[in-house]
Each structure stands twice: as structure tokens, then as C-alpha cells.
Amino acid sequence: MRQSSSPATLAPYAERLGLPWWAWPVGLAVAGLLAAELWLGATGLRAWLPFVLLLPGTVAALWWLGRIRVEVRDGELRVDDAHLPVRHVADAVPLDAAGRREVLGVGADPLAFVVQRPWIGGAVQVVLDDPADPTPFWVVSTRHPVDLATALLSARDTP
């Protein structure tokens, strides 16, 4: 969900890093097959227990995987429960899949803050300018890297 960046709007950018639609039927089908495999001729409590445990557990796990929200709001970049004041943002670099792979690859900085979802191709590298923080940059997955980088830089430059 992307919102306009007018001054009256409190959130110039908001997005939920949800799973693709096809992950839900695939996940539930795998859970159903596993439950049927565990059931396999059992009687009584053992007959329905795998279905009662695995199917709701799969729904909860799929929901949990797609719960992360990325927002630029109230002078902060918010990624799930992490908050970064935009005054500490030196630069925001939109990354495609190849750029993200390069930033997070073999030579990656171990002190970087990373929220990466493999089913989302784009990301933004947020370079920090905070002498009190040892974190050199954040890498955040997003479906709209240019929009997020623009929202971050405009929020930083707004007095």
C-alpha cells in the first residue's frame, strides 16, 4: 500500500511485506499432505489430531512470515519494531535483485541491519550518519525501492 506524500498525510510510504498469493495454497497443501501422511489409518484421537494441529499452525506460520511492515512516518523509518530517525539517514540507495545480492553477499558488513524477504526482489540500502551507532547501513526489502528511497530522502529534507 503506497500513500501520497502530501504534507497532510502522516505516512508518505507504507508497505506490508506479505507473501505472494500462491504461497498460501501451496503451504496449506503441504500441511494437508503431511497431516494425511501422519494420519494414515490411525483411529480415535490420532485420526484428526494432525489436521487440527498442522493446518492452523501453517496458517499462523504463513501469516507470521508476511507480517513485516515498512513505513516512513513521523520522521522515522519503521521496519517491524525497529525505528530509525530520518535525520540519521545519509543516503538511500534503491537496489534491484542483483544489487541486493551484491550488498548482502560474501563481502557484506556483519554490523548491517538487514530485513530481507527472499520472495521480494527489490530492496533499499539506507546509509547511516550516526557516530553513536556502529551500524553502517540498513538493507530493507521492498517491492517499490525507488518510492521508499524517495520517501526517506524527502522526509529527511523536510524541516
Mean pLDDT: 88
Radius of gyration (CA) equals: 20 Å
Strand arrangement, major sheet: 1-2-3-4
The SSE string, one letter per element, is: EHHEEEEHEEEH
Oligomer: single chain
Counting H and I runs of at least 4 residues, what is the number of helices?
4
Low-confidence segments: 1-11
Category by helix and strand content: alpha+beta
Number of strand elements: 8
How big a fraction of the residues is strand?
15-25%
Largest sheet: 4 strands, antiparallel
Distance between the first and last residues' Cα: 25 Å
In words, what does this structure look like?
By secondary structure, the protein is α+β, with helices and mostly antiparallel strands. Helices cover 36% and strands 24% of the residues. The protein contains four helices and eight strands. The chain has helices at 23-39, 45-65, 97-103, 145-157; strands at 13-16, 69-73, 76-79, 82-85, 89-95, 113-115, 123-128, 137-141. Strands 1-2-3-4 form a four-stranded antiparallel sheet, with helices on one face. Strands 5-7-8-6 form a four-stranded mixed sheet. A hairpin with a 2-residue loop joins strand 3 (76-79) and strand 4. The protein is elongated, with a radius of gyration of 20 Å. The relative contact order is 0.17. Mean pLDDT is 88; it is low at 1-11.
